[in-house]
Design brief:
Blueprint: E1 3-5, E2 12-20, H1 29-45, H2 55-68, H3 78-87, H4 97-109, E3 113-117, E4 126-130, E5 136-137, E6 145-146, E7 151-154, E8 159-162, E9 166-167, E10 180-187, H5 192-207, E11 212-213, E12 218-219
Parallel strand pairs: 1-4
Antiparallel strand pairs: 2-10, 2-11, 2-12, 3-10, 4-7, 5-6, 7-8, 8-9
Helix pairs in contact: 1-4, 4-5
Amino acid sequence: MEIVNEVRNLGVYVAYDVVAGVDNTRYVPQLEEEVRRVVEEVRRTLSLDTLKDHLIIRAYRDFYWRVLGIDPTKQRPAQEALLRRVLRGEPLPRINPAVDAGNAASIKYMVPIGLYDIAKIRGGVLRIRFSRKGEVFRPIGGSPIELDNQIVLASDSQILHIYPYRDSVETKIEESTRDILVVVAGVAGVGEERLVETARYLRNLFSLLGGAPVGEIRLA
């Protein structure tokens, strides 16, 4: 699996990884314990009142304003929305083991993470690029959207993701998923090393589900 980045000049970059053989049908105690530990760590070290001013969160908010033209108080960065939920005392959403692992990694490192079922991806090379007029995106939990000049992760025939906050229902992770593409989304002001460290941490969580990496963590 290869990702080509056509918009790096906008401060867009990713770390990506492939993990194969995940058993996403059952929870294991080690993963449950790690998710609980991460939630406790976040609540101990972060504050809801000052979250928006954290350097990492601020970098994504600035990207929303300056590059995407989105008000981040109305469409929050994905990881900020998760963090706010946890800091309000609500539980981290529970979807399935792999998605829950991704959410735990996202709040721990404060970066957005996309997870994609490789068996559902059509086409070869994926590109981070601007959408083409008339392309349609089918989001998880929403109606199809016709795109016009938005940053996406896509093949020639399929859009997986609107960068860096919304994934497609076409490639979502389900209990039957075995092989996963991990994409950690970065923006200007967030070091590549944080993205790689996040991907490495998520490898470790997926290993609890029987997953094994295929190749090295790569940057694009």
